[in-house]
Amino acid sequence: MFSIPTLGLRNRSPRAGNRRRSSVSSSPRGSTSVVDCAVYVDGVRLPGEWTHEQAMSEVRSRRNGFVWIGLHEPDQRQINGVAETFGLHELAVEDAVHAHQRPKLERYDDTLFMVLKTVHYVPDRARATNSEIVESGELMIFLGRDFVITVRHGRQAELTRVRTELEQSPEHLALGPSAVVHGIADHVVDSYLEVTESVQDDIDTIETEVFAPRTSIDAEQIYLMKREVMQLRRAVMPLSQPLQRLAGGYTAHVPDQVRSYFRDVEDHLVTVSERVASFDELLTTLVDATLAKITLQQNTDMRKISAWVAIISTPTMIAGIYGMNFRIMPETEWAFGYPVTLLVMMFACVVLFKIFRRNNWL
């Protein structure tokens, strides 16, 4: 299982450091978006710091190995130099700069362009009111015969762990740049699994509250969770077809050994897709149950209000009749008329109260 890093510069030797300047400082365009640039030969990272021009020249002069460049939220000016060096198609470059793409796999000449959505679960303690439960980012990958370029958008798409773990498995990296794509895809899908497990815990908590007796339900929280599940669904579902194409020999850049790895990632994605679909159905059921419970509670409240109105209206009616200023009224001249009237009012209220209580209106 591979994870994903903010690419760090490693294996620096003094001689190599004097011979090659860093990709940030030496780039003529000042490509501050370059996080790391490395050359791998037979699965082993060559020492030193490289610019993208030097890295490409080294690999093609050796006719062996590949270049892995990591970029973070580059603008058009910063990515132009890399695009020119590696011959990236302008439409793919535009997508990589502006982001907001759905997961996909496209071929431009001899280069593949892949988009993945990255997700991150926000725990309760770090979550503000009505804030996102699942934060998302984007990860674009350019795959060529001897290079792989990753473009990250958002803090959820870090690739440091992926690069570190891959460098600790030189036999896997020796399979070529497609092994890097597999490592990234495997990490992204594993993060989907982790997020769905956390979302499952939240939904279980909501389900317990919905079906527990005499509990107040916050329908807003369910709607918020449903919105986040829909966002997770938009990240997961479209990725199935790109993984199937990579596992099925869509390009010669993916050797047979790596295709089997992509099939394994695809199997994990199927598990995630089934979970997300079940979340959507369960949340729809919880919304219906919550609305039914709220309606029942409202009906109960209305019965209580109606019962108290009936109880109060009886003495009000009697008082209203005897409040009329007619000279000839029954019992107005009787000495016990006033206390008897009060007793009648109290008796009527008690009788009505017991009737409503017996019928569970109060």
Describe the SSE topology:
Blueprint (H helix, E strand, L loop, with lengths): L13 H6 L3 H4 L7 E8 L2 E2 L6 H11 L3 E7 L3 H11 L3 H9 L5 E5 L2 E11 L12 E10 L3 E7 L6 H8 L2 H4 L3 H35 L7 H18 L3 H8 L8 H67 L14 H22 L4
Parallel strand pairs: 3-7
Antiparallel strand pairs: 1-2, 1-3, 4-5, 5-6, 6-7
Helix pairs in contact: 4-5, 8-9, 8-11, 9-11, 10-11, 11-12
Q: Can you describe what's shown?
A:
The chain has two domains: 14-293, Beta Polymerase, domain 2 (2-Layer Sandwich); 295-358, Up-down Bundle (Methane Monooxygenase Hydroxylase, Chain G, domain 1), CATH 1.20.58.340. A hairpin with a 2-residue loop joins strand 1 (34-41) and strand 2 (44-45). Helix 8 runs parallel beside helix 11. The chain has helices at residues 14-19, 23-26, 52-62, 76-86, 90-98, 160-167, 170-173, 177-211, 219-236, 240-247, 256-322, 337-358, and strands at residues 34-41, 44-45, 66-72, 104-108, 111-121, 134-143, 147-153. It has a seven-stranded mixed beta sheet, sandwiched between helices. Helix content is 56%, strand content 14%. It catalyses: Mg(2+)(in) = Mg(2+)(out).
Summarize the structure.
56% of the residues lie in helices and 14% in strands. It is α+β, with helices and mostly antiparallel strands.
What are its keywords?
seven-stranded mixed beta sheet, ion transport, 362 residues, alpha+beta, Beta Polymerase, domain 2, rod-shaped, Methane Monooxygenase Hydroxylase, Chain G, domain 1
